[in-house]
Amino acid sequence: MADLQDEQTPAHLAYAAETPPPGPASVGAAPPAPAKASASASALDRAAALLSLHPVADGHNTLVRTLRQSPYHDIGTPDSGVDTDIPRLRAGGVGAQFWSLLPPRGTTPGDALADALDQVDAALALLRRYPDGLCLALTADDMADARNRGRIASFLGPVPGSALTDSLAALRAFHALGVRVLAPSGACWAAEELTPFGHEVVMEANRLGVLLDVTGCTPAAALRIAGASKAPVIATHTAADALTPHPDNTDDDVLLALRAAGGLAMASFDTGQTGDSLHAVADHLDHLRAVAGPGSVGLGASFGTEPGTEPGTHRPTGLTDPSGYPRLIAELLERGWPETDIAQLTWGNAQRVLRAAEFTARAAAHRRAG
Questions:
Q1: In this structure, are residues 258 and 235 in contact, taking their beta carbons and an 8 Å threshold?
Q2: How many Å apart are CA 101 and CA 288, to the nearest integer?
């Protein structure tokens, strides 16, 4: 059955549990107090056990774009030239990954369609190159099946809404290619007001089972998209605007709307959005959980870059690559997060939202057939 949990604890999680939390490592530094070290070790053990049952479904990784620019990287082995490879995804307990197909900042709307198609092609080529580690996922069942077969479920998207070029046929074509997330931010049909075409896009996305990603939308646009959609909407790489104002962060009004509609806010690990430490990321997760509720918070780290080469991209200490996920989960456990909330954070909420989008699509098909 698709939803059966793996019974064995993968060795990579045992490795992650044994890795000490980040901290000073200078020669002569005083060792940590035994009681604190014991507590951290216990939390890491619990984090590893949780991730073996409820892996991370990460909502945003830009590796496809990076590999288009630097195709010589081999992510099947540890590759220090990028922050994402299959060994580190496994070490971090990542069981599902949404591969971002968004263009680099500054891409003109006229180039968005061609760039998105190139990125879809590159993403599919990536999955073909690493069939033992990655597999294409189109549904929530695919997500669970991949995990149970020891693969990382790979979803395509988000693609930019500007790539539609005022054509619903483009959205249908992206769906046929395997894309399951669309990001309206920057599209002329999803500014402060949804245009008539924007409403058609939302309806067609619902009919197809394509999730709408409101990251980067103005609060007014995000609220209108959430209100127009019959399926839950998501924010694939965001944080709490109340803590750190940022164009990609989500304000409390939108978080409350996501809570009411069963949507999902997935926390980024970009220092510009969260601050420069694992503890700062945990603070943002605390806020997202408090406002949106434990059923509407997830993880979307935005890994997938070449460290030190992409301007403006920095990672918090302790979360420089996907292998840091067990440390973050241990931190949340030490803050008192119930294990049930963490299971929703890492895996359950993402799978629920996918199932809700699929249900909405089936209901639309039933109405048309009737």
A1: yes
A2: 25
Both structure tokens of 350: 């993402």
Convert the pLDDT of each residue in 229-269 to its tens digit: 999 999 999 999 999 999 999 999 999 999 999 999 999 99
> How confident is the model over 345-368, as pLDDT tens digits?
999 999 999 999 999 999 988 777
Sheet with strand 152-156: strands edge to edge: 134-136, 152-156, 94-99, 56-61, 297-299, 264-267, 234-238
Q: What gap in Å lies between CA 205 and CA 72, rounded to an integer?
A: 35
The beta strand positions in 157-233, using DSSP E, are 159-160, 181-183, 211-212
Q: Side-chain half-sphere of 369: how many Cα atoms within 13 Å?
A: 7
- What proportion of the chain, given as a percentage, has pLDDT over 90? 80
The helix/strand/coil state of 365 is helix
Those residues with Cβ within 8 angstroms of residue 314's Cβ, 6 or more apart along the chain or in another chain: 270, 271, 272, 276
